[in-house]
Amino acid sequence: MKDKELRKLIGSRAKQRRLELNLTQPYVAEKMGVTASTILRYENGSIDNTKKMVLEGLSEALHVSIEWLRGETDEYETDITDKKELQIRDAMGDILKQLPLDLSKKEDAFSKDLLLLMLKQYNLFLESFQFACKNYKGNTNEADIAKVMGFESNDEYNEIMFLREITHTVNAFNDMADIVRLYSKKPEMAEQRLENLLSEFFCMRIPIRYRTTTGVMIYLHARSISSVPIV
Fold first, then answer.
1. Distance, C-alpha 17 to centroid of its chain
2. Which of 107, 156, 172, 231 gives 121 a disulfide partner, CB atoms 3.0 to 4.6 angstroms apart?
3. 137 and 154 in contact (C-beta within 8 Å)?
């Protein structure tokens, strides 16, 4: 294949992949450390995009193989199909590139503990959120239960059940926000509170979703009992 044809092929495939992921040229440019106009010229093949450094940059930014960009294969073998997923991975990569941090030992430990707690809590949120979406968004199967338990409507029942499933996330991030605010005034106290939260997290034995749901059932049971007239 002639150089001009190869440049055109690489450019068209790079553009195809970028559009598939719904990415902008400035986004790809930032990942490659070049200007958006350079990406435009790479895509239209008006400048040399066949160099190893360019191909590696495009490959990494677009999560495809160099072989696919060069037309040597039609399978680019990637598990990235969604723009948000790509942005999440890029954001995580940006964080990892900053490690080790240019901080004191205690400051470094605090920042990493905070990140660890955020990630662990988000993992719990995913479990609870998926369960809540599947069971309490537009659910009409438990209308009779909702009525017996004294809810005004099935919608109210769904809203409360949904909220109870994710309340642990709301509380956890409120706690983390308080710790970050406290750090500016009393760093040692903030560090201790963060350490306590992490210890509590790692000592949990019952899945958070199960504990939350159990709490809801106790709450609803108590509410239903209180509504029964004493004879």
1. 22
2. 172
3. no
